[in-house]
Design goal:
Oligomer: single chain
Number of domains: 1
Radius of gyration: 12 Å
Keywords: Membrane, Transmembrane, Transmembrane helix
Helix content: over 70%
Largest sheet: none
Number of strands: 0
Protein name: Amino acid transport protein
Length: about 70
């Protein structure tokens, strides 16, 4: 469960999640706030590296298209 790629993906997407969460909180927007929270929490529940990277990429793409709504 603790492979280098899994830890790297969890760290990377958690840092992106912290930024998205702070952005959403400062502008009082619920979509980036909730996507940022999901980016910070989901790596704890994904046992495989490919799943961590896939879910993280999907959430980052979702954040890219819904950051201003």
């Amino acid at each position: 469960m603790f492979t280098a790629y899994n830890l790297l993906g969890g760290f990377l997407f958690s840092v992106i999640g912290i930024g998205a969460w702070r952005y959403g909180k400062s502008l009082d927007r619920w979509k980036p706030l909730s996507i940022g929270l999901a980016l910070m929490i989901y790596p704890y529940f994904t046992p495989w590296a490919w799943l961590t990277w896939t879910v993280g990429t999907i959430l980052c793409v979702t954040l890219w298209f819904h950051h201003d709504a």
